[in-house]
Amino acid sequence: MDFLIGGLAAMGATLFSNPLDVLKTRLQLQGELKPRGQHAVYYKHALHAAYVIVKNEGILAMQKGLGPALLMHGVRNSIKLGSYQWLTTNGYVCDSEDRTIFYRSLLASGFGGAAGAFCGSPLFQITTQMQSQAADKIAVGHQHGHSGLVQAFQTIYFRYGMQGLWRGASANILRTVVGASAQLTTFAKSKDVLRKNHELFQHSTVLTAFVASIVGGTCQTIFQTPFDLVCIRLNNQREKRRSC
């Protein structure tokens, strides 16, 4: 049940976060392999990027890649969150007083993150490539021209083989291990601190989880962003066809 809940929760969140991922992908691909100051700047910052995308491609462009993104986050987070909760419930993460043990939390979250990232790597690649597709005059990065999830799977497989579907998996795993470890460990430790030092949080599970999740998400973003940049570029770059 923990695996199912983790996946469904992530898919629900994706409906709201996918437009932000579209902006992030475009900003991260801008200026790829070009010297600083010697490339076109289509997107100045997140708000400007949203304006440019809507102006040139329409409001629906903010949800590009939504289909594969829903599946990707469902797969990755069902494994990541489900395995972490299972390990916690069975006493592998906390001590006898239900306090999070730091190194065990790191190992548990890293393991779950790595497994989820590996299984979801093909979907991450397709999501990235579909989010990067843009009108010609504001396009950044290689344009793969996918028309949908199934077509993208078929194209990548027939052009590059099974290995092509897991291109960039090593970077994706590293990215997710760092992000998951930072997110879940700081989330768990934050809950411990809040419950111990503030009476308000001792009587409100929802408020405690809400504040702790903000702390965990912030730490995840800080530590994961450099690896995310590398991962996005590896998954979107053009690759030579496999030889027959």
Automatic annotation (TrEMBL):
It comes from the Eukaryota. Coiled coil: none annotated. InterPro entries: MCP_dom_sf, MCP_transmembrane, Mito_Carrier_Antiporter. Keywords: Membrane, Mitochondrion, Mitochondrion inner membrane, Repeat, Transmembrane, Transmembrane helix, Transport. Its main location: mitochondrion. SUPFAM superfamilies: Mitochondrial carrier. It is found in: Mitochondrion inner membrane. It is a multi-pass membrane protein. The keyword Thylakoid does not apply. One of its GO terms (cellular component) is mitochondrial inner membrane. Solcar repeats lie at residues 1-90, 104-193. Belongs to the mitochondrial carrier (TC 2.A.29) family. This is Solute carrier family 25 member 35.
